[in-house]
Design goal:
The protein is an alpha/beta fold. It has a single domain, classed as TIM Barrel, CATH 3.20.20. It contains 11 helices and 12 strands. An 8-stranded mixed beta sheet has the order 2-3-6-7-8-9-10-12. A two-stranded antiparallel sheet has the order 1-11. The chain has a two-stranded parallel sheet with strand order 4-5. Helix 6 links the parallel strand 7 and strand 8. Helix 6 crosses helix 8. The longest helix is centred in the middle third of the chain and has 18 residues. The two termini are 35 Å apart. The N terminus is likely disordered.
């Protein structure tokens, strides 16, 4: 396929030059790590093996992952552990608020493992974290990257009631690959959650909430399927979009079928903007929470 570099079945196939990234440690990286260790907080940066984590830590920022490190789902693309979840830590919201204040963050992203075991899917903990950040750092913009809450509008309203600035929910891949990549998720359910974001804000606070989603390429999807996913997201009112390259965390995960060229990412970005997304980030190392504050900065 033009614009793609096919990956051989051999797992040792070398990554192309544009996917080689150097990692470096500096004082700011150590400071960020120290704050997280001191406050006993988890990040998706480390748990998901994000290739950008040292870049973020060096800018004294991180994406907080609440509700433990064990996910109740076992998606084929994700490095977050699957297993028996922990109890809900009642002190966690206060510690996240403290970390945001210590790091001096102007924009923060909070996500979680999926907690299908909890009646509210963890929505109450999200709301508590948002309120804690507001109390400690009232000038900080807050984005929450939420799971699908099993399709519960009540859970979504609980999160919206705490008045974050952005609610994000990642589609992750095209409709045709959901069963292989996200066996515990449902394409239509995820789209419906995104559709309900503005409504949940109106019901809860009367203020406007920005909606956001992201997906990866390289699973074997076609361009037509990518464009169809964009159209589906626009149909449900999604405003912000991120597109990045899937990188398999291990040989046990879904294999990388293609390495998508930087030029193709540019084509996807141009197409998404032309279709009507308010903000688009599309490049090999783009992740949904990486430099997330740039979306609000461009509006």
């Amino acid at each position: 396929m033009k614009g793609y570099t096919e990956v051989a079945d051999n797992a040792a196939a070398r990554k192309p030059e544009w996917l080689r990234k150097r990692f470096s440690l500096d004082e700011d990286t150590e400071f960020t790590g120290g704050v997280l260790e001191d406050l006993r907080l988890n990040t998706v940066c480390r748990e998901a093996m994000c290739p950008n984590y040292t870049d973020c830590f060096s800018r004294r920022t991180a994406t907080f992952m609440i509700l433990g490190t064990n996910c109740t789902r076992d998606c084929a693309f994700c490095n977050v552990a699957h297993g028996e979840p922990s109890g809900v830590d009642a002190d966690e919201p206060a510690r996240v608020g403290e970390a945001v204040a210590r790091l001096g963050l102007k924009y923060v992203v909070v996500t979680s493992v999926t907690r299908d075991d909890l009646p509210d899917g963890g929505a109450g903990q999200f709301a508590g974290v948002i309120r804690s950040i507001r109390e400690r750092s009232p000038g900080t913009a807050v984005e929450v990257l939420v799971p699908d809450f099993g399709g519960s509008l009540e859970a979504l309203r609980t999160v919206a009631s705490a008045a974050p600035d952005v609610i994000s929910h990642n589609m992750e891949t095209v409709k045709e690959l959901y069963q292989a990549v996200r066996p515990g998720a449902d394409y239509g359910r995820s789209l419906e959650l995104i559709r309900r974001i503005p409504e949940s804000a109106a019901d809860s606070t009367g203020s406007r909430l920005r909606s956001k989603s992201g997906f990866m390429v390289g699973f074997g999807e076609t361009r037509a399927q990518v464009y169809a996913l964009m159209d589906d997201l626009l149909e449900v009112g999604c405003e912000f979009l991120t597109i990045g390259q899937y990188l398999a965390p291990s040989r046990a995960h879904h294999r990388v079928v293609e390495y998508v060229t930087p030029g193709t990412f540019d084509e996807y970005a141009d197409a998404a903007r032309a279709k009507g997304f308010a903000y688009v980030a599309s490049a090999p190392f783009v992740r949904s929470s990486y430099r997330a504050g740039e979306a609000l900065g461009e509006l």
